[in-house]
From TrEMBL:
<dbReference type="InterPro" id="IPR011009">
    <property type="entry name" value="Kinase-like_dom_sf"/>
</dbReference>
<protein>
    <recommendedName>
        <fullName>Protein kinase domain-containing protein</fullName>
    </recommendedName>
</protein>
<dbReference type="GO" id="GO:0005524">
    <property type="term" value="F:ATP binding"/>
</dbReference>
<dbReference type="InterPro" id="IPR008271">
    <property type="entry name" value="Ser/Thr_kinase_AS"/>
</dbReference>
<dbReference type="GO" id="GO:0005737">
    <property type="term" value="C:cytoplasm"/>
</dbReference>
<dbReference type="Pfam" id="PF00069">
    <property type="entry name" value="Pkinase"/>
</dbReference>
<dbReference type="GO" id="GO:0004674">
    <property type="term" value="F:protein serine/threonine kinase activity"/>
</dbReference>
<feature type="region of interest" description="Disordered">
    <location>
        <begin position="338"/>
        <end position="361"/>
    </location>
</feature>
<dbReference type="InterPro" id="IPR000719">
    <property type="entry name" value="Prot_kinase_dom"/>
</dbReference>
<keyword id="KW-0067">ATP-binding</keyword>
<feature type="binding site">
    <location>
        <position position="42"/>
    </location>
    <ligand>
        <name>ATP</name>
    </ligand>
</feature>
<dbReference type="GO" id="GO:0043065">
    <property type="term" value="P:positive regulation of apoptotic process"/>
</dbReference>
<dbReference type="GO" id="GO:0005634">
    <property type="term" value="C:nucleus"/>
</dbReference>
<keyword id="KW-0808">Transferase</keyword>
<keyword id="KW-0723">Serine/threonine-protein kinase</keyword>
<dbReference type="GO" id="GO:0035556">
    <property type="term" value="P:intracellular signal transduction"/>
</dbReference>
<keyword id="KW-0547">Nucleotide-binding</keyword>
Length: 361
């Protein structure tokens, strides 16, 4: 069961500056009064009633809290406290200052496969622990893989955002159509029963991008991307993978398998020869191979631009919505005044998928 406190959060934490905001609330820096330790406070608005459109369902927040309270690992964002009032829930979470892993890598001039593996190993260790607790993340993507502190000599990877995570119960069948198109597994698109193997597909996609700067299934539209995933339409183009080791390609191939039962688990990934070389020859090959940094920088710049574009687009839609609502309210007011005076005197499968999936990154 998720544990919520009814104390006033401001009695225990000093509320600081806004770090970010979204549709359902904002994240602020907070400082624990008793210890002076800084944390992040995630202030989430709750729906006030059954018909309310604003805010989150308490059940969805409860689910995320319960999952985070069950996960204690250095590569997973820590949850310290949860406070609840009538109108909102406040999650006190680990303050992660290092930014996204992909942004950190894009700042480098070069990166060998061996150096990239140091980061990938941490992701796999976090996912392996998560899966050992029967939890699937279901939204692994670059935006949700952060660094604790990029100034540290060996920064820790932090997996964040468990809003779509699910804890499996033995004998349960779980289906979902959530996720970001270019990172989701084919079983999600086909609305088949899911397992933690869906996360391993996402790791395969992330690794492919990391090494080449190319997204394996990305199409011109979300519909085309989804079709490419279902058709397993990807390849290792020589132009982008000329400096990639054969072991790295083998690693990816053993994750991008349509049958989720055949994919490597996180534990199996950690002992794959690319991650853990068995011979000096394998180690030497890995050290001589490097990621396609020029193309990776292009991919990351485009990804960040798209994120900014989506944010601006969302803000514009919100402004238009407010304007429409205001106009309708004025029209209704005028109509009521007039009445007072008178009294005194498609549905395609792919389109459905796009609507049901979260916005692409």
């Amino acid at each position: 069961m998720a544990v919520f406190k009814v104390d006033n959060v401001e009695d225990l934490y000093e509320i600081g500056e806004v770090l970010g905001s979204g549709h359902f609330g904002q994240v602020r820096e907070v400082r624990e009064r008793a210890t002076g330790i800084p944390w992040a406070g995630k202030f989430l608005k709750l729906k006030r009633g059954v018909g309310s459109r604003l805010g989150l369902e308490r059940k969805s927040v409860e689910k995320e809290v319960e999952i985070l309270q069950s996960l204690q690992h250095q590569n997973i964002m820590a949850l310290k406290d949860v406070f609840e009032s009538r109108a909102e829930v406040v999650l006190i979470i680990e303050l992660i200052r290092g930014g996204e892993l992909f942004d950190f890598i894009a700042e480098k001039e070069s990166l060998t496969e061996t150096e990239a593996i140091e980061f990938l190993m941490q992701i796999l260790e976090g996912v392996s622990y998560m899966h050992s607790k029967h939890v699937g993340h279901f939204d692994l993507k670059p935006e949700n893989i952060m660094l604790s502190d990029k100034q540290a000599p060996n920064p820790d990877i932090k997996i964040i955002d468990f809003g779509m995570a699910h804890c499996f119960i033995q004998g349960e069948e779980y289906k979902s159509m959530g996720g970001t198109p270019q990172y989701i597994a084919p079983e999600i698109i086909n609305f088949e029963p899911l397992s933690t193997a869906a996360d391993m597909w996402s790791i395969g996609v992330i690794t492919y991008i990391l090494l080449s700067g190319l997204s394996p299934f990305q199409g011109e539209t979300d519909e085309e991307t989804l079709k490419n995933i279902v058709a397993m339409n990807y390849e290792f183009e020589p132009h982008y993978f000329s400096r990639t080791s054969s072991m790295a390609k083998d690693f990816i191939q053993k994750l991008l398998l349509k049958d989720q039962r055949e994919r490597m688990t996180a534990e199996e990934c950690l002992i794959h020869p690319w991650i853990k070389p068995l011979t000096r020859t394998q180690m030497a090959k890995r050290n001589r191979s490097s990621i396609n940094m020029k193309n990776f920088k292009k991919f990351n710049a485009k990804r960040k631009w798209k994120m900014s574009y989506n944010m601006v687009s969302a803000c514009n839609r919100l402004c238009k919505l407010k304007l429409v609502c205001k106009t309708k309210a004025l029209e209704q007011q005028e109509l009521r005044e007039c009445e007072s005076d008178q009294e005194d005197t498609e549905t395609k499968t792919a389109s459905l998928l796009r609507r049901r999936l979260s916005s692409s990154s």
